[in-house]
Specification:
Blueprint (H helix, E strand, L loop, with lengths): L1 H14 L9 H13 L6 H6 L13 E6 L2 E6 L4 H10 L10 H11 L51 H6 L21 H13 L22 H28 L17 H8 L4 H10 L3 E4 L4 E4 L18 H7 L8 H10 L5
Antiparallel strand pairs: 1-2, 3-4
């Protein structure tokens, strides 16, 4: 009987999603904040050139669109305790900034780590909102890219993509040109940011019927000028929400375990961690402590020390003319260090060129 139960448990764990988290969401949020702060995009001139009023408290409203093919779903901005705790309490983002460009970027960077609860056998609770209109998924399993072997996370059996394909919305990010993954499950990719930006600027979409940019199974046409303007603003929010998700994935490429097929969730029992879920990342804990200027605990000698905060400037700034050039650089490992912040700032500046 014991052997049968043990065998059943191992079969379950084999098909159990291999859960992996990257930097803590606080770290992602602050990295994104600093990337925006250090970019040329955080300027009055850059923002007003897009027709956006930087002085408005909520220039886009508080809704955005989640688009899958011709289907458009309207989603309200997350105002849960989860998001308030991260943005306001942990990161100190003012209420006035939460629905501006910076706030939407940070929302994307935080929500890119959305996952679903796993009650049995390990009791993983998910405090992020379970509000995906197409069905909740485990996004972090798609945050891996091994550049040496050009592969995604291979531990476990549930489907996943390389972080590069997941970010670009392509089935082969290194092809020329990268083909569109029309059935992609990630709706906050570079391609989605580009399409949302087009709709925000023109009030149209690239395919017929061009005016059907509103919510619905095949989209819908705005009933009047007021509704058309609300749709355009929601697509601006979508643009920056999607770009925030992409920034999260670039940040993950600076986490060595995400480039080495190395699961590190710390989930479940120690023997399960050994073979399936991985031990909790000490590196990520330390990075979170530095992000929040926190205390480090040294288990070797039971001592505590105050850590210095992260340094966000003074690094050489990589430049990219095309979005496709970013993963090409990642393939050679050039982004796997502290230059990540300036790289993200440069990507902010170059969104229009994508």
């Amino acid at each position: 009987m014991t052997n049968r139960l043990f065998s059943c448990l191992w079969v379950f764990l084999l098909f159990y999603p291999c859960f992996v988290l990257a930097y803590e969401v606080d770290t992602h949020g602050l990295m994104t904040f600093k990337a925006f702060e250090n970019s040329d995009f955080d300027s009055y001139e850059s923002i007003t050139r897009l027709g956006i009023d930087p002085n408005m408290e909520s220039p886009f409203g508080e809704d955005y669109f989640d688009v899958a093919g011709t289907t458009v779903r309207k989603r309200p901005a997350d105002k849960s305790v989860y998001m308030r705790r991260i943005l306001r309490q942990n990161l100190g983002l003012s209420q006035q900034a939460q629905f501006k460009i910076l706030g939407w970027l940070m929302r994307g960077a935080i929500r890119e780590d959305d996952f679903t609860p796993k009650i049995f056998p390990c009791g993983l609770e998910a405090d992020n909102p379970q509000d995906d209109p197409y069905g909740n998924i485990d996004r972090p399993i798609n945050h891996f890219f091994d550049p040496v072997n050009n592969r995604e996370l291979t531990i476990g059996v549930d489907p996943r993509e390389t972080a590069v394909n997941w970010a670009l919305g392509s089935s082969d990010a290194f092809a020329t040109p990268p083909p569109d993954n029309s059935g992609r499950r990630n709706h906050f990719t570079v391609r989605d940011a580009r399409e949302a930006m087009f709709r925000a600027l023109t009030g149209q979409r690239l395919t017929d019927p061009v005016k059907a940019i509103g919510p619905g199974d095949t989209g819908s046409t705005p009933n009047n000028a007021t509704e058309a303007e609300a749709f355009r603003k929601a697509y601006w929010a979508t643009t920056f929400r999607a770009l925030g998700d992409v920034m999260h994935l670039i940040e993950d490429m600076a986490q060595p375990q995400h480039t080495r097929n190395d699961q590190h969730s710390g989930l479940c029992f120690p023997f399960v961690q050994d073979v399936v879920t991985g031990h909790k990342s000490v590196y990520e804990d330390r990075m979170k402590a530095r992000t929040l200027s926190g205390i480090e605990y040294n288990s070797a000698n039971a001592s505590k020390s105050q850590l210095d905060g992260l340094v966000y400037n003074g690094y050489p700034i990589p430049s990219f003319n095309r979005c496709e050039d970013v993963p090409a650089v990642e393939t050679h490992g050039y982004l796997l260090d502290s230059r990540i912040y300036d790289a993200m700032a440069d990507i902010n500046d170059g969104l229009a060129s994508c």
